[in-house]
Structure formats: C-alpha cells, structure tokens
Amino acid sequence: MSEFEKAVTGLGEECGVFGAYDMDGHDVAASIYYGLFALQHRGQESCGIAVTDTAGKRKVLSRKGLGHVNDVFDEKVLSELKGNLGVGHVRYSTAGGTRVENAQPLVINYVKGTLAIAHNGNLVNAIELRKELEYTGAIFQTTIDSEVIAYHIARERLEAATAEEAVRLAMKKIKGAYALVVSSPRKMIGARDPFGLKPLCIGKRENTYFLASESCAIAAVDAEFVRDVLPGEIVTITKDGIASDMSMAMPAEKQARCIFEYIYFARTDSTIDGVNVYHSRIIAGKALAESYPVEADLVVGVPDSGLVAAKGYSEQSGIPYGMAFHKNSYVGRTFIKPKQSDRESSVKIKLNVIPEVVKGKRIVMVDDSIVRGTTCANIIKMLKKAGATEVHVRISSPPFLHPCYFGTDVPSNEQLIAHSHTPEQIRDMIGADSLGYMEIEKLKNMVGDLHFCDACFTGNYPMEVPGEDISQAFE
C-alpha cells in the first residue's frame, strides 16, 4: 500500500508470497509475475522475484524494486530470470521502512548453498532474536524481521540434515505470525505459523507446483487449487512430490486465523481455509442488517471491501443495492503524498460520488472499518453534498480498540478513534445519521467453525505480545 493509500484508508495491508517449482525444468519467472500481480492488493510498496535452476549451477538470480509489480518487471527483466524454481513477494511494510534493501525475497548465501525466502507476517520476539544474533556476530543488511527468520534458518541448516528440518528448528524459536516460502537448491518449502494467522495454499498445473498467500493467485496462473497449508504445517515440494511435517501444529481450539482476511485483506474471489471470502462478506452484511435495521432508499458500499457486505445488507433488508461511487484505480504510488490536512482532497481524488444515484435518497453506506474517522467523515460529506438526505453508516467489523502485532498495520491506541470515543460520539464526529458496527459475537458467523484472532477488537491476543510498538524497532 502506498503512502497515499495509507493516508486515505488509515489501514495498512499485509504482504503476499508466491512460489513456483516446475519439475520439467521450464522457467517460472513469468508465472511468479502473474501470481504476484494477483496478490498486488496485499502490498504495493515493493516486490521481488528470485529464481534458481535446479539442474544447472543452482545460482540464484533475483530482481527487486520499489513500486508495483509492473513498475519493477517487464518482459526483458523476466526473460533474464532463468530458473525453474523461484519465490516472489509483494510488500507492505509492517516492520522496517520503505527502502529497496527491505524488499523481498531475501537471498542468503551461506556455507550450505543459497536460500531465497519470502515472508508475510510479523514476529513478536524479533527484537530479542535480532539482538541475540548481533551479539554472536551477525551483520544485518535490512531493517525487517524477515531477515531474522532467514538467519535462523541458515544457522539451523548447519547442523540439520535437510533444509525443511532447519525451517522446523527455526520455527521453534520464532514467535508471531508468518507464512514462509523458501527455495533451497532443489526444494520449495512452505511453512505457516502454528496459529494459522497468515494464509498459505498449494496449487498445481501439470508438473508445476505453486505456493501462494491466496487462492486467487493460484487461479491467476491457471493452476488447480490443491489445498491450504495447515496451521503449523511445513510442506516440502521436490521432484518426488509433496511431503508434510505437522510436528509444529497445535490443537484446533488454539488456532487463531486473522479475521481481517475475511473482512478486508483478502481478494473477494479467494477461499481461505475452506471459507469463501465473498460468502463471508455477504454474511457480514446480512448480520449488520439484522442488528441495525433502518428505513432507507438505497444501500451502497465503499469500494472495494465494503461492496459485498453492502450487497448482503441489501439482500437481508430488502432495500435496493446501488453503486454510488466511482473509484479511480489509477492513483499510483507516485501521486503526491497527502498531509493530514489534505485528506479530504485525497479522498476526492480516489473516490467520486455519482450524484444521480444518491440525490434525494436516504442512504445506507457500508464500509469495512473506521480507523481514525477522517475518511468516513469526508465520504459522508461528499454524499450529502451530492444530495443524499440521510447517510446511515454500517461497519462490517467491530470498533478497533487495540493495536495488531501480527502484520496488520492497525495504528496505536491514540490514533484509533474508537479507543477514546463512544459509537454515539463517533457518529456525531463523522456526520452520520446513524452508526452501527458489527457485533463481536456475530463475527463467528463469517467463518463457521474456524478459530480466529479478533485481538484488534477485544484485546484477547492468542500469544503474549510485547508492551511496545515493534513496527519501527529496527529503524
């Protein structure tokens, strides 16, 4: 997500990882490119691809840069990335700043060979692990916790019999949220944290295997979805097929998938852990209509993640669904960075209200969250200026009350409007005629039997978290 995006939405996205291994020896860089393209919504600050030829000298070739996937890669660059095994990454910075050396994948050359690592997530013990490594002589090139993971895998590999065993031993030390895709000279390894906080899945197309953050990226390369990597599972893909190690798994009741994948992060056409994202957002909208009915003429959603929940609200309430906004999809990372005072104009650049749709009507406006409240207030002002007589806001998540330590850029408490204001005060501040948040007890309806993390709403973290903001600790 660009600085502009962050300023407009107030919320940061996550990272996306993608891996490919062609057993027939064909180059995979183009497939990784398309996979990353499908995951672009998960990170827009930087991206990278690293590939190796399993039959040749096994040298790793990589290209990384700031910006979108099509800013960094073109046909010429992709044609130079020769190799049938590779990993890719799109990044939104949750720990460490926006600089090219923080782009992934990380490529580590060490005594046992070369590893390329792509990581989505955040470690809660990254600071102590990094200090421990520094005191034993490690020199860090980046300010991201992903490098801490890479170091630990490389160190464990010195004694471990295999690369996957090194990953397992490293997982015993790292704590937090992570989905990893690792390429060693002849293997592709995927690992998911024992809580399942970050998603990871497996795909297959003929003799090529894929690992991806979301199933939409598997579909983008015309591959067949095989299954999700399970929480705590390590999968190793070689020419002999897939091997699974579940020794790091924990009981299902302790698992804690990020509920915000279903509310906001994931693409609508993805399915994560057996739950379709589109379906979960429809359910969220229906729950809002049950909890907060209102007399209105039209239900509209704020693009993009509010659109499906708005459809659900419409279906449950019987109020017609309409498209009230035009979204400008071409606001890229080079757009001038807005100051706090410029947020209103920034919203207008990104979203435009269609006056013919809303004029003279009572509107139900559905969005995924209210973080600072600035954006929501500006959109309501735009709707009323375009002629809406009433604007009733419905939010498909509960109020944000606590920071996230697991890779979601939820701001500190002081910046969360719900932390210091009641819903009625927020309603008044944003200029809405009524305001309704998703009820916490109804979140489970979105994901069925899955156990999930809702700490940003409840403060009930699935593991011990640091008492400080670790996001800029390495700066």
From TrEMBL:
Similarity field: In the C-terminal section; belongs to the purine/pyrimidine phosphoribosyltransferase family.
Q: How is the cofactor bound?
A: Binds 1 [4Fe-4S] cluster per subunit.
Question: This chain belongs to which protein, by name?
Answer: Amidophosphoribosyltransferase
Residues of the Glutamine amidotransferase type-2 domain: 15-240
- Looking at the record's lineage, which domain of life comes first? Bacteria
Q: Which residues are catalytic?
A: C15 (nucleophile)
Q: Where does [4Fe-4S] cluster bind?
A: C258, C404, C453, C456
The annotated pathway is: Purine metabolism; IMP biosynthesis via de novo pathway; N(1)-(5-phospho-D-ribosyl)glycinamide from 5-phospho-alpha-D-ribose 1-diphosphate: step 1/2
GO terms (BP aspect): 'de novo' IMP biosynthetic process; purine nucleobase biosynthetic process
Under the GO molecular function aspect, what terms does this record hold? 4 iron, 4 sulfur cluster binding; amidophosphoribosyltransferase activity; magnesium ion binding
Q: Which UniProt keywords apply?
A: 4Fe-4S, Glutamine amidotransferase, Glycosyltransferase, Iron, Iron-sulfur, Magnesium, Metal-binding, Purine biosynthesis, Transferase
Q: Does the keyword Acyltransferase apply?
A: no
Cofactor(s) needed: [4Fe-4S] cluster; Mg(2+)
Q: What is the lineage of its organism?
A: Bacteria, Bacillati, Bacillota, Clostridia, Lachnospirales
Q: Which Pfam families match?
A: GATase_7 (PF13537), Pribosyltran (PF00156)
Please report the organism this UniProt entry assigns to the protein. [Ruminococcus] lactaris ATCC 29176
Give the binding site residues for Mg(2+): S305, D367, D368
Q: Which reaction does it catalyse?
A: 5-phospho-beta-D-ribosylamine + L-glutamate + diphosphate = 5-phospho-alpha-D-ribose 1-diphosphate + L-glutamine + H2O
Sum up the protein's function in the record's words.
Catalyzes the formation of phosphoribosylamine from phosphoribosylpyrophosphate (PRPP) and glutamine.
List, alphabetically, the InterPro entries matched.
GATase_2_dom, Ntn_hydrolases_N, PRTase-like, PRTase_dom, PurF, PurF_N
| E.C. number | 2.4.2.14
Which EC class is this protein assigned? transferase
